[in-house]
Structures are given as C-alpha cells and as structure tokens.
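User: quick one, sequence for these tokens?
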C-alpha cells in the first residue's frame, strides 16, 4: 500500500500533513486502533509523538476535486515541528507495515510557505483537524511566555473530554527528544466546562519553569492511567519569537518605547492655537498669582541656560518672575543671557559665593516676591503652558481650599526634542513618596506655606526638594497633581536624572535624613534606611511592646493539604511573638477534615514555640465570603486582624511585623502583601479598579525582582485596593466601616472593603516586603468555568460598579489619567 503526501502546513509549532492511504479505510483504522497507535515516529532514533486524525472528505473534496475517489483514504498526520531535524514516520496495523514517509524540517518550512500562499483554505482545513478532538485525547497549547529572574516560565492549557479525575503529567524535550530539566506546577483544574459547540470539557493549567534561552522544544502531556491519549505541542523559533513579543507588548509600560511616547506627546502637547487660547483665558483668570521661579545657577552651561530661558519666556501665563541665583558671577553666561533676554521679569541676583544648592535656593526664596514659588533646575526645560495649567488648577479650586503644593508629569531628554522615559504620576502617593521622591518636578509651593514651615537646612543638600515636599506633607498641605507632561529633565553627567549613585552620592544620605526627620516630626517611631537602589529608602516602623495579639482569620472548607501548608508555614516561619489563628469552618464534608482540626492546636503550639495558637469556629450558613470574614472577626480576640486565604504559604518570616508596622501610622487603613504564584511570578502587587471594566492586579506575572513602572512592583505604594487573600487592618478601622459588605458573597468584597476604608479617610498600602505564595483557585474554582458562578460574578460586578461609579467613569486615581485603563502594566 502506498502513502502519498497531498499537502503540508506548519502552525503553532506543529506540522500538519494531509495523507492518502491508498486502498486503506484509514478512518476505520483510526477508530479501531486510536490516533496514536499505528504511526511510529522517530528522529535520530528517538521516539517523537504524533497523531493521525480523520478528515472531512467532503470539505477536502470541495477544495481539491482530484481527491474525489479517495473517500475514507484521507487522514491528517500531526507531529511537532522539530527545526533542523528529519523525521521518519512508519505506519503499521498490528504486524502489517502500511508504509512510511520522511519529513525534512527545512523542506517543510518552504513547502508550508508555498501552500499558505497557493492553498490557504486547504491549509486551514487540515490545520483545524485537531480542533475539537478532545474525547479520549489530551490537547495542549502554550498560552503564555513570561520572563523570570533566572529563566523563563511557560504557561500551558491542557484540555480533554472524559474522566475528570485524570491528572495530566507534563514533560519537556529538546528537538532530539532528550529530556529538559524543567519544574512543572499545577495551577488549577476546571471540570465540566461548557464549550460553544455544546460540549463540556475539563481543563488543567500548568506552569513550567525552564532555562531562559531554549527556543525549540516539545511539551508532551500524558495520563499515568492510560485512559487519555497523550498530547503534545512544540515550540520553534518563529513561535517562540511571536510569544516573546506578545509577552513584551502585553506587559510593557509607558517607558518601554520612547518613539511611541514621543508620538503620544506630540499629540497631547499644546499647539500654537492652544497657546493663543491660553493667553486669552489666563488674562481672564479671577486669581492671577505672581509665580516666582527660582533657578540656582553655578557654572551653568550656556546652551542649557539659553534653552531654559526660552522655555520660560514662552509661557502662555505671563504673571511670573524668574530669579537666576548666580553663584558663579565670574562665569558670565548668566549675566550675558539675562541681559540678552531684556525682560524685566528676569532678575539675576549675584550671590557672594557658592554656598551650595540649599543656600543658593534659600536665597532665591528670600528674594522672591510671588504668591507661589516654583523650582527649576538650571539645565532643564518647561513646556510653554506649564504655568497656565498650574494657575488654572488654582482657579478651579474653591478659595481657601486652593492647592498649596503642585507637581506635574515629566520626562527626560539628552537632546532637545528627543523626549523619553516619561514619568506619569498620580495624585500624591504618600507611601511611594516614603520610598523615593516621586514628586520631583515641577514643584511649586505656596509662599505662605514656606514662610510657615521654614526653608530646608543645609544638611539635606541634594535632596532639598524631597525635604521640602515631606515637610509640606507633615504640615497638612493640600497637594495637586497637574496631569500634563510639562517638565523636561535633562540627563547628563552630574545629573541625578539617571538615578546613579555616582552623580551626587551625598544626596542619598540627605534624602534618608529628610525622611527620618519627617517621621520624627509626626511622632511616629521608626527608622529610615537606605534601600537596595540609590535614592530609594525603606521605613522600618517600631512596633508596640509588649507585642499585641494579631488574629489571623482563615476561612476554610476541606482541602486540608492546602490548609495545612498555610497554617504550618505560619507556625514554622512567622517570627512575630503573639498571634492566634482563627479557622472559620464552612460546611466541610470530609471526615478527615474534622480529625485534622483536633490535631492542629498541639502541632501549631509546638511548631511555633508557643508564639501561636489555633482554634476553629463554625459558620453554619452557605458560602458567603463576606459573612464568613465578619463572623471570624467577631470571634477573634486581637486588635490587629490579618485576613488570610487558606491557599497561601508564608515566604517572609517577618511578614506580620512588616504589615503591622504601617498600621502604627494613624493614616494607614489596610495593608496588603506581595503574593506569588507557585512559579514565583507575581500574583498580587496591588489592585487597580476599573481596568477593563473590573479589577486588575497591577504588574501580575512579573518576576520577583522586576521593578515595573515607577518601581511600583518592588516599593511600598498606595493603591485603591489590595487583595483579600492577605489583608491586615486594625480592628477599630474594620469596625468603623462595619466590616465586609455581605452583599458581595464571593467577588469584589475585598476591593469594596478597601474603598470604604479609603472613603473613611485611611490609606490602602501595598508592601513588597511581606511575601507569601498564593495558590489561587486551588481551593475554589474560577468563576468563568461555571455558568452559575459566572452569572453571580456579573451580578456582583454590576453592584460594585453601582457602588463605585467614579472609578469606571474617571479611572483609578492610583493609575493616573494619562495611562491606559486597558492595561494593568501602566502603559499609555
């Protein structure tokens, strides 16, 4: 019997070959022996997985009339595309050899390209032969590539119809079918998932940690029981590049593509017509304050200063004065350029000597006559409508409630016009400010406020703007973020724009000192430390003594292996000296669950060296997460509440101390931790509200050390919400807002709680220094996989939107108005 190759195409790391088995009822053969039983595929002597699938003869006939006599003789061979390899396939039925073919990957590449151009419909037909073939067969697809700190992570979806108890096992091989060392994690399983065609299937999601630069490999998923036939998919260079690009595009932030940013900026910056309108509008402002712009100058580059002067002279708001504090009069650039400008609003003030940045700046403040004082570095540039937008913000406010401190978005440049690395800010992010100066430019402060709080001392030189911002905050000043890119920060040797410690090493200690003094002035005990990056700090808050009781409230139902990993990780690892674990039992069914509860108190006491205790309280109602949390809190004894999912596991031994530290501040409401999936990629680093019409985990799937936009994945920061999988809150705050809203039975309750805490005047804080694993969906199924759960989720989504419409109308204030509400990665 001859076997003839009729067509071939390549897709998603697989080869699809349309074959004719002359004189053979191949459809019956497949039905009798299975899609894998009679094709024996090898490369260099090693076995290669393959499938032989039936094909719809009528559909093929419509595209290829020449096959009219081949009914039941056609089949599609599916096998991995092994780049650079030759594959031999032998077909046999029992002891009868039916024939063989040889496939050269180099020839297959070319043939596939030709066929896609000449016979696209036929290629689509044979490529789709595998779709829907779930019955008795694993189908596996790579769904995502993710960069990790020490390698790469691949996420796979495995689908099958049949016994849901089957547990797929995954192995990875190179193109010579040698095993690759890889770590496989089972993320979640979904059973009886409805499909559009009316069928129902099972799904398991796997994560695979691999070495980073392996581009060509084969994933084979098998069933140890043999009930389900093995499935496979392959990765080749083309597919690899596509998935890497998709990952980069999905996770890129506003700094990722300077060319794209420049296009955005040119679309949004003021045009000449806008400037003309602004001049008319600003002349009619009810409030026209004089703005004093202070520029300390010392051996200033003539070109830089010329560009600065041009940017100030171009301002569409005209009530300003520019104070050039000349600390190097022998360097005649300042005097000459000021004279050339010939504008009475420009004042050159000759200083007796260079007293340093703080002394020179303070001299400018003393000489200023304006209502507001703005600070401009001598090598930077303003947009021509900077002052217009600032004064416009003052006019929009009610008199007596005008902003006292204003700042804007900014970018960086080396050459004028080549803008890049934009910094799109939010309203004042206090906890990010406590990590590094996230306000920076273009800082404008009410003169009366400076007169009240005083000027910066000399020992904060290099961080004087940070010091001033912190002292304004301590004084209760009103801050306003002006959401326009109005300041261009020049990058050059000696500038701190590149974040290098070599530029101004003394400024690092100055910033730490300013932060320490800020907390001292507030009466909050703690120590400001330098973090692991220049100009970044970490506050370590002092905790009360003796250690107050922390109640760890954990809802649970069966799944004792998952619960035990959680509880015993606390008992073994937690260093905090006084905690209780309150398990809220909700209708468990397995007898072993209750036996487990009996043994747990003694195990926890021994493992924790007496620091922790555990008890079980019984919630008799149906599952309602909010009710269960509230019930657990009622039975908890501590003044600090840690609300924790049963599918978490401790990484940081001091996670309780870290989270509790923030709650020593009176403005702190809810504190959330940094959570990781089993593959050590980020599961939670703060929640954004309104992104894609729901809730989104900021920077999800990042590697542990990946900083993200504005370093918000690795620095403490304010968010609208943090996940209820790990929340800490003081009892008085929890009771003030009446706990969780019980109308949210399953979803959105944690975010609603955080927003009500925010509404009560407290901050929600994410800290990256408290780390846990979160094995999400291992104890409860995903809503999308169940029709009833999906309907309930949509009802709760609608209720959440009704409760908090402003987040869906104007966006999350901790995302910022210039960033996309369709991305959790802070992209434009």
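Assistant:
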């Amino acid at each position: 019997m001859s076997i003839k190759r009729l067509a071939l195409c390549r897709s998603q790391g697989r080869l699809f070959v349309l074959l004719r088995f002359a004189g053979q009822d191949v459809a019956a053969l497949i039905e009798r022996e299975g899609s894998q039983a009679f094709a024996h595929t090898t490369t260099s002597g090693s076995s290669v997985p393959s499938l032989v699938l039936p094909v719809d003869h009528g559909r093929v006939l419509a595209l290829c009339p020449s096959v009219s006599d081949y009914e039941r003789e056609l089949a599609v061979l599916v096998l991995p595309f092994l780049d650079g390899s030759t594959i031999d396939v032998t077909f046999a039925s029992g002891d009868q050899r039916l024939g063989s073919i040889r496939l050269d990957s180099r020839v297959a590449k070319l043939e596939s390209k030709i066929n896609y151009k000449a016979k696209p419909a036929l290629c689509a037909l044979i490529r789709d032969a595998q779709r829907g073939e779930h019955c008795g067969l694993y189908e596996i697809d790579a769904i995502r590539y993710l960069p990790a700190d020490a390698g790469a992570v691949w996420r796979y979806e495995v689908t099958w119809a049949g016994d849901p108890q089957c547990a797929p096992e995954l192995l990875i091989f190179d193109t010579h079918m040698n095993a690759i060392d890889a770590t496989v994690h089972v993320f979640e399983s979904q059973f009886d998932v409805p499909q559009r065609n009316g069928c129902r299937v099972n799904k398991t999601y796997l994560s695979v940690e691999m070495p980073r630069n392996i581009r060509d490999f084969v994933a084979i998923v098998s069933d140890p029981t043999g009930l389900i036939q093995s499935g496979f998919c392959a990765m080749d260079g083309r597919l690899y590049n596509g998935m890497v690009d998709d990952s980069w595009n999905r996770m890129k932030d506003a700094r990722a593509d300077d060319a794209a940013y420049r296009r955005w900026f040119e679309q949004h910056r003021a045009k000449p017509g806008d400037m003309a309108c602004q001049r008319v509008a600003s002349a009619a402002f009810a409030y026209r304050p004089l703005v004093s712009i202070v520029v300390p100058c010392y051996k200033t580059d003539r070109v830089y200063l010329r560009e600065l002067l041009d940017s100030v002279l171009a301002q569409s708001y005209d009530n300003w004065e520019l104070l050039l504090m000349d600390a190097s009069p022998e360097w005649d650039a300042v005097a000459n350029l000021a004279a050339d400008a010939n504008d009475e609003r420009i004042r050159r003030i000759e200083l007796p000597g260079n007293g340093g940045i703080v002394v020179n700046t303070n001299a400018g403040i003393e000489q200023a006559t304006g209502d507001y004082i703005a600070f401009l570095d001598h090598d930077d540039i303003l947009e021509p409508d900077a002052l217009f937008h600032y004064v416009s913000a003052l006019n929009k406010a009610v008199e007596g409630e005008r902003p006292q401190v204003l700042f804007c978005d900014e970018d960086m440049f080396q050459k004028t016009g080549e803008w890049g690395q934009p910094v799109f800010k939010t309203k004042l992010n206090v906890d990010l400010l406590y990590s590094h100066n996230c306000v920076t430019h273009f800082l404008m402060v009410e003169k009366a406020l400076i007169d009240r709080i005083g000027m910066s001392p000399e020992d904060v030189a290099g961080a004087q703007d940070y010091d001033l911002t912190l002292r304004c905050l301590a004084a209760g000043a009103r801050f306003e973020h002006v959401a326009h890119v109005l300041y261009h920060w020049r990058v050059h040797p000696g500038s701190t724009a590149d974040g290098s410690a070599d530029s101004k090493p003394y400024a690092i200690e100055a910033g730490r000192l300013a932060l320490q003094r800020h907390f001292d002035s507030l009466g909050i005990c703690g120590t400001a430390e330098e973090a692991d990056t220049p100009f970044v700090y970490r506050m370590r808050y002092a905790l009360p003594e003796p250690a107050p009781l922390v109640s760890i409230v954990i809802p649970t139902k069966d799944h004792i292996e998952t619960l035990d990993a959680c509880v015993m990780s606390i008992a073994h690892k937690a260093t905090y000296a006084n905690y209780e674990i309150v398990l809220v039992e909700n209708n468990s069914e397995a007898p072993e669950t209750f036996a487990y509860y009996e043994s747990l108190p003694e195990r926890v006491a021994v493992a924790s060296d007496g620091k922790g205790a555990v008890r079980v309280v019984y919630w008799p109602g149906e599952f309602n997460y909010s009710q269960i949390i509230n019930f657990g809190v009622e039975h908890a004894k501590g003044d600090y509440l840690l609300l924790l999912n049963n599918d978490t596991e401790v990484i940081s031994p001091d996670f309780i101390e870290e989270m509790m530290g923030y709650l020593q501040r009176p403005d702190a409401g809810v504190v959330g931790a940094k959570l990781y999936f089993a593959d050590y990629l980020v599961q939670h680093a703060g929640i954004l509200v309104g992104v894609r019409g729901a809730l989104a985990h900021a920077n999800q799937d990042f590697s542990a050390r990946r900083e993200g936009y504005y370093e918000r994945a690795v620095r403490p920061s304010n968010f609208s919400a943090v996940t209820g999988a790990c929340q800490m809150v003081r009892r008085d705050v929890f009771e003030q807002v009446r706990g969780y809203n019980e109308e949210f039975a399953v979803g959105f309750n944690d975010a609603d709680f955080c927003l009500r805490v925010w509404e009560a005047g407290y901050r929600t804080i994410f800290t990256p220094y408290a780390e846990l694993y979160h094995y999400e969906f291992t104890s409860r199924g995903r809503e999308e996989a169940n029709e009833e759960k999906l309907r309930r989720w949509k009802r709760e989504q609608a209720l959440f939107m009704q409760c908090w419409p402003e987040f869906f109308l104007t966006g999350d204030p901790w995302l910022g108005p210039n960033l996309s509400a369709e991305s959790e990665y802070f992209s434009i």
